[in-house]
Amino acid sequence: MLTGTADPGALARGAPTLAGFGTEPLKLHGVETLQIFCEIERESSDALLPPGLHPTVPPAVTWLVQRVAESPWGAFSLAQCRIECRSGLRPRGFLRGGVVDCAEAGAALAERWGYALRPGEIQLDRAYDRIRASVRVAGEEVLCAALRDPMPLRNADAYYVANVNLAHTPHGLRLVQVDPEFEVERAERGRPVVERFAAAAWNADGARPSYPVSGSFTIAAVTLPALRYVSRPDVLAFQGTERVDAQPG
Amino acid sequence: MRFGIFFELSVPRPFTRINESLVYQNALEQARLADALGFECAWAVEHHFLEEYSHCSAPELFLTAVATQTTRIRVGHGAVVCVPQINHPIRVAERAAVLDLLSGGRLEFGTARSSTWTEIGGFQADPDDTKKDWDEFVRVLPRMWMEERFSHQGRCFSMPERAILPKPLQQPHPPMWVTVTSPGTELDAADRGLGCLGVATASFAEQERRTREYHRRIQQCSPAGGAVNDRVAILNFLYCHEDGAVAEARGLHFLGMFGMLNAHLLFTREAYPTSAYQSLANLAPEPSKKGGPGDRPGVPEGLCLGDPAAILRAVRRWESIGVDQINFLVNSVEVLPQDQVLDSLRLFAKEVMPVFAAC
Q1: Torsion of CA B88, B92, B93, B94, to 10 degrees
Q2: B127 inside domain
Q3: What is the CATH number of the domain that holds B150?
Q4: Is position A113 within any domain?
Q5: Angle ∠(A112,A113,A115) on CA atoms, nearest 5
Q6: CB B63, CB B4: distance < 8 Å
Q7: Would you say residue A249 lies in a domain?
Q8: Contacts of A221 (CB under 8 A, 6+ apart)
């Protein structure tokens, strides 16, 4: 059985600090999400995950680029690079790195949900023939990807796996499960194109895209949830999962 | 109630030639024993690229070996992937007919469309098309077997008139099934007069609902083939031991390994959003509703991991809700030593099977 081989200690150096487990849910309205799903080369892909997570067969990466119209911090954009994985039996996306264009939103996402984000510029352009995202960090383009020829999709067919975000928590270094709820108002799917991906900028050295699979786009109300579970990054989920929400009486 | 044995041919890492060979030889030995013990059918999946989980990519060859090493057990495709990029329908018809001839008319013919992106993507098939491909296959395959000469102008393939040879031994053709993973596929099976070959575990209540609906619906079917197969088979896990605690511990070990390896595959819905795949269709039993992700589950409802008395109770319950056949997985990535697997089959055949043979 395959498991991740990344050193949790090394991963810890870039991990944010969670303020606590009492995070209240937060509903964000008018969230546009471009997701590109792409297979990556097997060689070195296991090293992108900690030992507590399993790679998928074949290994894959998802990029999520989101533009949020309304939030307590105003409009902002967010981009994530996640390695598809399993926590025990559950499909998850392990956040390797992210970019945000609003410092206040970035701080809140880190403290409350464990998102590791760095500042940058995010462009999400919608047209009839394509939906294209460009992400820049310190002036360098680190991701350019698009969905070509968008076609309508049933809202119910849009699918997102939950995040696992590595963070320093009151329990120590943990994988924080974050399963945003998408209330989809519009969904599209199209041909994925990856024009540029600078893996190192996403803390994802070794992630070499090999086969773009799908591109999807949604407009949705997205609820960032209360935290329920965390797990240790160094042991499998069956041994290392801890419940952190209030236990029912 | 009839009983079958179900082969995924899962191979532990590292994938040495010795390991690959051992899995196949152990499976053949299990099939020979199942034949001698009175099991009804030996089924083999068709999967491609599913590392560890299933190395059964040429089931027609494996089943031919089973057929030639046994005398009475039936051999089942569980199931042929009916997607033209993976199997051309003419070759499917030809290979199945030859297997039916070589086995002396013992073939059960299951059909499927694949649920993983691992496989569909590997062959560059279009997930949006696989349901339509499967439907076209199940309509034309019986004609290929029954008609002296066959021609076809279709959506997924066309061909001028030819004699597709040989014809199978069974008349009008081998019994046809469809694998049922996602809820609702049992209705597709019923509408076409195909047997319902469950390959994902379900609770008693869910299976009862599916079985009742299947039997109601198949009364008004438009048969895809020359004969209606109205049987309902389910997948189960078997580890039988005199000591129930030993049986549970060993059985849960192999069940857990199966579930983990299955879960690590890349499911189509996850990689490629489409209406054609509305669930992940992973096969692992649902975890306990009471517990959290970190809790160790007990034996899920209805699984045959226990002493003979416990297994007898489970089988009786399945029988009471209308299930005709239970097909057992008996190992996963060789976590159980072969002698334990064989002993489990023998004990089941001695203590449980006779109760149902007499009915």
Answers
A1: 100
A2: yes
A3: 3.20.20.30
A4: yes
A5: 115
A6: no
A7: no
A8: A27, A28, A29, A30, A31, A182, A183, A185
A1 occurs within a structural domain:
no
Residue B295: closest CA among chain A residues belongs to which residue? A238
Contacts of A248 (CB under 8 A, 6+ apart): none
Domain count for chain B, please give it: 1
CB distance B271–A211 less than 8 Å?
no
Q: Which two tokens stand for residue A245?
A: 């929400």
Supply the CATH number for residue A112's domain.
2.40.400.10
Domain that holds residue A81: 8-243
Q: Which residues have a Cβ under 8 Å from the Cβ of A19 and sit 6 or more positions away?
A: A111, A112
Whether residue A248 lies inside any domain: the answer is no
Q: Angle between the B59-69 and B89-102 helix axes, to the nearest 10 degrees?
A: 10
- Cβ–Cβ < 8 Å for A80, A64: yes
Residue contact A159–B260, C-beta within 8 A:
no
Contact A238 B261 (CB under 8 A): no
Instruction: Provide the number of structural domains found in chain A.
Output: 1
A158 reaches B (C-beta below 8 A): yes
Give the structural domain span for B249.
2-288+305-336+349-357
Residue A128: is it exposed, middle or buried by C-beta count within 10 angstroms (0-12/13-18/19+)? exposed
List the pLDDT tens digit at each of the 249 positions of chain A.
899 999 999 999 989 999 999 999 999 999 999 999 999 999 888 999 999 999 999 999 999 999 999 999 999 999 999 999 999 999 999 999 999 999 999 999 999 999 999 999 999 999 999 999 999 999 999 999 999 999 999 999 999 999 999 999 999 999 999 999 999 999 999 999 999 999 999 999 999 999 999 999 999 999 999 999 999 999 999 899 999 986 554
How close B51 gets to chain A, by Cα (Å)?
Answer: 7
Amino acid at B20: E
- State the complex-level ipTM: 0.94
